[in-house]
Amino acid sequence: MSESKLHNLQDASFSTTFNAPDADVIFRSADKKLYRIHTNLLEFASDGFPPVEFKPGATEVVDLSEDSTTLEMMFRFVYPRLTPSLENIEIADLVRLAEAVEKYQIHAGMQMCKTMLSSDVPRSAQV
User: Predicted confidence band at 125 (pLDDT cuts at 50, 70, 90)?
Assistant: First the structure.
């Protein structure tokens, strides 16, 4: 990443969990949190990530439409040791996560969200 790009990110808020110095891409959430991610793990965990137009080693930050709460949970499905527990997640957050993992085709997340949404049908139907 160029010095000017790094300088512009110095005051930015990076995820404490996803901030690997050797990562080769930086994603920015809709609410401006930054994530340093390894593209090789994205490619392994997903059929829809990174996007076709993405060029590894690019110096730009890649903006995503999802908020930081959603991305924080979603990226946990990309890194094998960080699979999140969705037991106590709010239904609205679970729905946003389900939409994101479906959009980016993150298979482990898709299956877990499907299971959790199926078990939450009676609870959410009462809302």
Answer: very low
CA-based nearest residue to 34, from 8, 58, 53, 2: 8
- What the block records as the tokens of 39 is 């593209």
- Report field, pTM of the whole predicted structure over 0.85: no
CA distances (Å), origin 14, targets 37, 65, 114, 124: 11, 17, 29, 33
Cα separation values, 54 from 7, 27, 47, 50, Å: 22, 11, 14, 6
Of 55, 58, 60, 70, nearest in space to 104 by CA: 70
Q: Please, which residues have CB within 8 angstroms of residue 58's CB and are 6 or more apart in sequence?
A: 25
What is the spatial order of strands in the sheet that 62-63 belongs to? 13-19, 33-37, 25-28, 62-63
DSSP 82: G
Length of the chain: 127
20 touches 57 (CB < 8 A): no
Q: Which of 5, 39, 4 is CA-nearest to residue 22? A: 39
